[in-house]
Amino acid sequence: MVFFLPSCESFPVFNDTLLRQAGKGSKSVTSRDSVFDLLEKKWISSTYFDQGLKYESSRMKVVSLSELLKVYSPDENMDAILLNCADGYQGIISINDVRNYDLQLALIIELPQGTARPYWLQPLLIVVPNHAKPPFSERFFTANITELRFVRLVDYYSSLYSLDLRNAYAQFGLELFKDNCLFCHSINKVGGNKGTSLLSTFDLISDEGINNFKEKFFKMHGRDNNTTQNTGLFLTDDQFDALLEFLYEISANH
């Protein structure tokens, strides 16, 4: 079972001059940019990917994100890459993450024959190579990427940090929301729109509304869900309580 970008199947000789021209003056990269025909490609496996999605022996044809950064040379103030996806998902990874974990970008995803695949698992895909050991986090599973845009983390998160949170537990919940939920559920016009708006969908200041949220959450994101989006990989029970505290506070002030 193979999923690929048609424009990335050729294997031209690696050419530094062409690469520099491809990235000149650009602040974003789309999945159809010619740079993907020019960057060196290799097949790798990722235990991190297989463990997170309960697969075995997956393979991806990848290019190095660090090499992509060399081509585009973003301004030194740009310290992150915003990952806009075809299905409304929006990931973000820091440039430090790219370098510290040697992150790769998959142009082709090859799953063993007969493997069930969620609809969102399409290239481009962030891939953690086997020699890197980051913590499990939703941002390292971003797929279906159509654009990579260079941004500043302080600008991207500014409206979230302007929220009036009254206690440290809610502040902790904000960090958890940033790392695990914001990619699908936007707040204050920050984040993705793949999932519903939690503040408008649920009455998170009533016991009934919170119970309704919990029921829907575990149906969509529990260990046995059918979308392979298992937040049990990322959130402990205590952390889920902190997430609820954050949502309660912003709902009360919304």
Describe it for me?
The chain is α+β, with helices and mostly antiparallel strands and 254 residues long. It is globular, with a radius of gyration of 19 Å. It has helices at residues 16-23, 35-38, 47-53, 65-72, 95-100, 153-156, 158-161, 168-180, 198-201, 207-221, 237-252, and strands at residues 2-4, 28-30, 42-44, 59-64, 80-85, 90-94, 104-110, 125-127, 145-151. The longest helix is centred in the last third of the chain and has 16 residues, at 237-252. Residues 6-26 have low confidence and may be disordered. The protein folds into 2 domains: 2-152, no CATH class; 158-252, Cytochrome Bc1 Complex, Chain D, domain 2, CATH 1.10.760.10. Strands 1, 3, 4, 7 and 8 form a 5-stranded antiparallel beta sheet that branches. It has a 4-stranded antiparallel beta sheet with strand order 2-9-5-6.
